[in-house]
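Dear Dr. H.,

I hope your travels went smoothly. While you were away I took the liberty of generating a structure for the chain from your last submission, since the lab meeting agenda had it listed for discussion. I wanted you to have the full record in hand beforehand rather than looking at slides cold. The sequence, exactly as received, is reproduced here:
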Amino acid sequence: MKGLIIKGIAGFYYVKSGDAVFRCKARGIFKQRDMKPAVGDHVTVEVIPGNDDSLITEIFPRKNSFIRPFIANVDCFAIVVAAIKPEPVWRVLDRFLVMAENNDTDIIICINKCDLAEDDTKAKGKKASANIKMIKEIYEPLYPVVCLGNAQGARTYETSRLRELIAGKTVALAGPSGVGKSTILNRLIPAASAETGNISEKSQRGKHTTRHAELFPIDAAAETMIFDTPGFTSFDILEAAEAELQYLFPEIAKHIGTCKYHNCRHIAEPGCRVLAALAEGKISRGRYESYKALLNEIKQSGQY
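The corresponding predicted structure, in token form, is as follows:
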């Protein structure tokens, strides 16, 4: 019997097959092969008569997988950034985008807490409004951008558009703590009842409120699924080689092959079309600085 792992807790895996959910253990052979089932895995399950627990006997090949959190087969990342509280950190946003590009997923940028920009007569509202405008100017030419409200009772903004963009996909919410990922999950799937946490006044960062990875269906047919995870808040090491990084920035990738030198890294080489596009204002200076910073990080880590 085939199924989908929708939750994993304390060595038990909950596998959805049709309308039923089975609590399973993994065959010992997976441990011998240094394999571990992940939430999002498509598996084969053997139901053992007279036993409360079923057995996972096969794990099908994965489209992609992630260590922290340990999930698999992500079709799309909805990368969440707050209009304010916490302030957007552009390098962090770009890092998430590179991670998603590197794992061959669709990408949506969600600007949450757009309701805080409604009163632009106050400093907080003005700042939130300015941040929203900047995010759209930089990123809308590259990815779909949707605006969402975070507060209870706030109007839904573009929640319907987000539903349309993720339809039929397995989606992971990613972004720094405190941007409202669990609130967005609850808006999309009230039955998920994900915990939400307040922003720390001292650090202006959110408190981690999700404790294990779980997949929730957004529609009755379970064709659209959303991960709620305790991770995807930061990365220690960028898993990309130096020569690959340029392909993970779409505005740089479209100039590959047009530079004077075939191995151009777009830093100071003569005849570089990326540098020319930067000088012409066709590439965001901030995005280019993120590219240089990540390239330097890869070099220092020896991934080239």
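Two observations you may find useful: The two ends are 43 Å apart (CA to CA). The first strand starts at residue 2 and ends at 9.

With kind regards,
E. W.
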